[in-house]
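User: tokens in, sequence out, please.
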């Protein structure tokens, strides 16, 4: 049996003694005053839904502030974007102090894997047809210089929380946090081809993220409107499953993933909001639409020797395309 000491856990310091809070059921745990949290802490300086811990398939643990009023602090520093936790990190929520522990020696990791269902390891390193979405917050570094830290942390924390909900509601999950960006993956049923309808959730996520981003801009005092950009790519990749039971926990590696990041970066070069790969675009053609909202562009993707065809649009055109599909 895996003990608390060999799994990620929190040590909560209280007047009556230290409490150990194991992070071992599932891959996501929330902390706050509200009864709907995994860990309820009765500290009036803590928000009802204050922060979240998310375990990635790689074993990395992220702390994600959920837009709390008084902030989440790691080793005395307030965080506004998801941060990777290290063994021994000191956490502060309101007036509550905790320490994160994650002994990640190889034997411990193997022990964790051994107690999972067989299906958790049976599909490691399988070549699958996937679609990858990367969404990035524009000019985040500039925001950090121009905005009050407390307001920025609350706004960006809410952005990441709502982004996770939007992605989950459309059949995927946040696979990675990369600074001020998120990556989501859709595993397709067929290994041969993708029906255009299967790809609509990726665009629906982008549309809903854009609407949510605008709503946050209207609520906070920002020096300029908060903006996002997105890249979508479809192709084969090596995927691994380190989840268990009915919650597979996939990650993907390969050129399909790399290209999705490059496509997102290319939107800045060509002055567009969304860029999709040629394969993704061709699958959209199967919907019977001429997909006129997507403009063909030849882009230079970093790390690629030859120019690449991409199809780009702005958010208004994306909304129009989805309306044509009845989405």
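Assistant: Sequence out:
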């Amino acid at each position: 049996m895996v003990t608390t000491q060999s799994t990620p856990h929190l040590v909560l310091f209280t007047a009556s003694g230290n409490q150990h809070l194991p992070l071992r059921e599932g891959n996501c745990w929330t902390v706050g005053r509200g009864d709907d949290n995994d860990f309820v802490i009765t500290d009036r300086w803590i928000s009802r839904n204050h922060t979240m811990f998310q375990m990635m398939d790689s074993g990395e643990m992220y702390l994600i502030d959920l837009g709390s009023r008084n902030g989440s602090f790691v080793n005395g520093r307030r965080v506004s974007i998801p941060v990777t936790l290290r063994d021994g990190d000191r956490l502060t929520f309101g007036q509550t102090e905790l320490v994160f522990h994650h002994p990640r020696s190889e034997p411990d990791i193997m022990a964790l894997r051994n107690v999972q269902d067989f299906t958790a390891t049976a599909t490691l390193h399988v070549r699958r047809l996937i679609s990858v979405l990367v969404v990035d917050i524009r000019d985040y570094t500039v925001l950090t210089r121009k905005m009050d830290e407390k307001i920025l942390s609350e706004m960006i924390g809410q952005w990441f929380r709502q982004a996770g909900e939007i992605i989950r509601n459309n059949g995927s999950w946040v696979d990675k946090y990369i600074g001020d960006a998120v990556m989501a993956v859709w595993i397709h049923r067929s290994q041969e081809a993708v029906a255009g309808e299967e790809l609509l959730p990726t665009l629906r996520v982008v549309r809903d993220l854009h609407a949510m981003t605008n709503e946050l801009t209207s609520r906070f005092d920002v020096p300029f409107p908060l903006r996002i950009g997105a890249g979508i790519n479809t192709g084969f990749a090596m995927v691994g499953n380190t989840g268990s039971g009915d919650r597979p926990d996939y990650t993907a590696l390969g050129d399909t993933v790399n290209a999705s990041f490059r496509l997102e970066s290319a939107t800045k070069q060509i002055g567009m909001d969304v860029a999709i790969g040629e394969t993704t675009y061709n699958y959209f053609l199967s919907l019977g639409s001429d997909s006129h909202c997507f403009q063909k562009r030849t882009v230079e993707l970093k790390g690629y020797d030859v120019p690449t065809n991409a199809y780009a649009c702005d958010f208004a055109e994306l909304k129009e395309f989805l309306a044509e599909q009845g989405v």
